[in-house]
UniProtKB/TrEMBL annotation:
Record CDD domains: ENDO3c, NUDIX_DNA_Glycosylase_C-MutY
Highest rank taxon of the organism: Bacteria
Taxonomic source organism: Pseudolactococcus insecticola
Reactions catalysed, as given in the entry: Hydrolyzes free adenine bases from 7,8-dihydro-8-oxoguanine:adenine mismatched double-stranded DNA, leaving an apurinic site
Name the UniProt record assigns to this protein: Adenine DNA glycosylase
Cofactor dependency: [4Fe-4S] cluster
EC number: 3.2.2.31
Molecular function per GO: 4 iron, 4 sulfur cluster binding; 8-oxo-7,8-dihydroguanine DNA N-glycosylase activity; adenine/guanine mispair binding; metal ion binding; oxidized purine DNA binding; purine-specific mismatch base pair DNA N-glycosylase activity
The record's free-text note on cofactor binding: Binds 1 [4Fe-4S] cluster.
GO biological process: base-excision repair; mismatch repair
Job of this protein: Adenine glycosylase active on G-A mispairs. MutY also corrects error-prone DNA synthesis past GO lesions which are due to the oxidatively damaged form of guanine: 7,8-dihydro-8-oxoguanine (8-oxo-dGTP).
Residue ranges of every copy of the HhH-GPD domain listed in the record: 50-201
UniProt KW keywords: 4Fe-4S, DNA damage, DNA repair, Glycosidase, Hydrolase, Iron, Iron-sulfur, Metal-binding
UniProt family annotation: Belongs to the Nth/MutY family.
DNA sequence: TAGACGTGGTT
DNA sequence: TAACCAAGTCT
């Protein structure tokens, strides 16, 4: 092998890389993960969806609970949405679980209860894109396809100094074409999982390769000291600040609080929260609330803050007295509230309320 | 295609 | 702290 040169065309070096990777995986891979104990497509699917943009440690308890409550795809297909959202509460990206039920119904109706066995067909299911399709196809059905996730982009961009911008969708094909011939034809699922483990350990985002690494000799960017320049990634989203008053309205008997249901589309779709009034700046909130509810009392000194990917919310809890009915408000007792699926945002608001009542 | 979509952890 | 990262997909 010539230093500083692309080895992906060399049959010998590719074979060497596969063996090095799989030997390392057998020795150092995270074989103890619950979803690696059973390669049944349903199990792999549930884990892959949960793991999207979500860390392993967070997922484990959710995964165990979900599989216990819904052991088969048939169970998922007919489950109540409220149960699904309960099982997902706090995990985020709630469209994932809604799409999972759609996909389960597709499997039952369009595929006679059997998961499709190829990446191409798996992508027909709701919520399954190119990454998840390839992961399931390779792990459960031994299809020889690369599962291109953030780890694989990073690992191969460094190994082969691929400069395509991973923020651009069109770059996926460039990576796919480069990596597909490298995937181990005998153990494609293990190859993909090994790359993920590699990407979270020896080749994590801010980790630099050492000369002792078994992958140093394959790493072209390590050889010329440009490792942390990869992957090339352009897009950046800036966070928007938003300011809210969360209205705490007790029913006449003092036993229940008012809630409103969020719109069916968009952020936290369909979840119930305290009624929220938005203001353009922090300073407007006090006067703004007082204008509508003259007897309003501020309940919190510091606002509750909640950060989404693209928005930062600051919410002040305000106790209000209302006269007449608010069409969109519903009063729930604590007992009924506990039964409903809740987002982390609402859990924070509720906790702040209990502390300050 | 760029932006929306949750949450928790790290720097 | 604000920004960025973590097993992406949908519109």
């Amino acid at each position: 092998m010539t230093a500083f040169s692309d080895w992906s065309e060399s049959r010998e070096t590719v074979a060497d890389f596969r063996k090095t990777l799989l030997d390392w995986y057998d020795e150092s891979g995270r074989t103890h993960l619950p979803w690696r104990e059973n390669t049944d497509a349903y199990h792999v699917w549930v884990s892959e969806i949960m793991l999207q943009q979500t860390q392993v440690e967070t997922v484990i308890p959710y995964y165990e609970r979900f599989l216990f409550a819904l052991p088969t795809v048939a169970d998922l297909a007919v489950a109540d949405e409220e149960l699904l959202l309960k099982l997902w509460s706090g995990l985020g990206y709630y469209s994932r679980v809604r799409n999972m039920q759609k996909a389960a119904q597709q499997v039952m109706i369009d595929f006679s209860g059997q998961f499709p066995r190829t990446a191409k067909d798996l992508q027909k299911l709701a919520g399954i894109g190119p990454y998840t399709a390839a992961a399931i196809a390779s792990i459960s059905f031994h299809e020889v396809v690369p599962a291109l996730d953030g780890n694989m982009f990073r690992v191969f961009s460094r190994l082969l100094k691929i400069t395509a911008d991973i923020a651009l969708p069109k770059s996926r094909q460039i990576f796919y074409d480069k990596i597909a011939p490298i995937v181990d034809p005998v153990r494609p699922g293990d190859f993909n999982q090994a790359i993920m483990d590699l990407g979270t350990s020896l080749m994590a985002a801010k980790t630099k390769t050492t000369a002792e690494s078994p992958f140093a000799r394959f790493n072209l960017s390590f050889k010329d000291g440009t490792e942390l320049d990869f992957p090339v990634k352009s897009k950046k989203v800036k966070q928007v600040q938003r300011f809210y008053a969360a209205l705490v309205s007790e029913s006449d008997d003092g036993a229940r609080f008012a809630y409103t249901q969020r719109p069916t589309t968009g952020l936290l779709a369909d979840f119930w929260t305290f009624p929220l009034l938005e203001f353009t700046s922090w300073d407007d909130i006090y006067e703004g609330v007082a204008a509508i509810y003259p007897t309003a009392q501020q309940l919190t000194i510091k606002p509750v803050t909640h950060i989404f990917t693209h928005q930062k919310w600051q919410i002040m809890l305000v106790k209000v007295e209302t006269h007449g009915s608010h069409k969109n408000w519903t009063y729930f007792s604590d007992e009924d509230y506990e039964k409903m699926p809740q987002t982390t945002l609402q859990v924070k608001l509720q906790a702040a309320l209990k502390e300050n009542l």
